[in-house]
Specification:
Its EC number is 5.4.2.12. With about 230 residues, the chain is α/β, with parallel strands linked by helices. Helices cover about 20% and strands about 25% of the residues. It has four helices and nine strands, in the order E-E-E-E-H-E-H-H-E-H-E-E-E. It has helices at about 70-85, 100-105, 115-125, 145-160, and strands spanning about 5, 25-35, 40-50, 55-65, 90-95, 130-135, 185-190, 200-210, 210-215.
């Protein structure tokens, strides 16, 4: 069994000139899968490649960095195609559980994403180098080996120093707090114990950058507690 990992920088490389184009015209098969934990998030792909007699000839597993699920799925396809080109296999049947990618390659869906279009174009270019290529969709439970290899790639990548976090950082509505609109608040003035039941005096203000600003007051009066009420 051969284990091979294709560096992500080679997704668009053509290494066919470096390979010995020795292979037969027999069909090989590939099961590929890709995923991202967070979408986008730490991503990887895996693929199991088998000869015509069903024997495993390669396992591909690569960590891709902080990417989307669809990017990872296409990376798996590109990895399988490059393996076939490099090793002189001219016919490949590929199975993926990504219905989107399969139907895009089949021409049933358009590729509208600007992030996926270069990957799609490169996949079609590599497919054109083969004498025969077939792609089909399968449910995830029929793609277990490729799924396992993809998860192993993500596990390896997430253990590397400086690798991407498990989930993307949450976006804040106002990244620049200085531009955030003020939040109106109201303050209930503390009355003497005998007056608590009847007191309804209020001070009004707002908060900005975590600081309380009182309208018409330089500072909070002594002896009060603050209750913030969003208006």
């Amino acid at each position: 069994m051969t284990t091979r990992s294709t560096p992500s920088s080679s997704l668009f490389s053509d290494q066919s000139s470096q390979s010995s184009r020795s292979s037969s015209g027999a069909w090989i098969s590939a099961h590929c899968d890709g995923g991202a934990r967070g979408n986008p998030g730490p991503a990887g792909y895996g693929a199991l490649i088998q000869a015509a007699d069903g024997s495993v000839i390669a396992e591909l597993s690569e960590f891709l960095g902080f990417k989307t699920n669809n990017f990872a799925e296409y990376s798996g396809l590109l990895g399988c195609l490059q393996y076939a080109i490099d090793h002189g296999h001219s016919r490949m049947k590929l199975v993926s559980d990504s219905e989107l990618m399969v139907k895009q390659i089949q021409g049933k869906y358009q590729v509208k994403s600007p992030d996926l279009k270069p990957l799609y174009d490169e996949a079609k270019r590599r497919i054109a180098k083969l004498d025969g290529f077939e792609i089909s969709h399968a449910l995830r439970h029929k793609n277990k080996d490729a799924d396992r290899l993809a998860n192993e790639a993500m596990d390896r990548g997430m253990k590397k120093p400086g690798s991407a976090p498990a989930t993307a950082p949450k976006a804040t509505p106002y990244p620049d707090r200085a531009t955030a609109p003020p939040v109106p608040i109201a303050y209930a003035q503390k009355a003497a114990p005998a007056q608590v039941a009847s007191s309804s005096a209020m001070l009004r203000g707002f908060t900005r950058d975590g600081v309380i600003h009182i309208l018409g007051e330089d500072r909070l009066p002594e002896g009060i507690f603050v209750k913030i009420i969003r208006e």
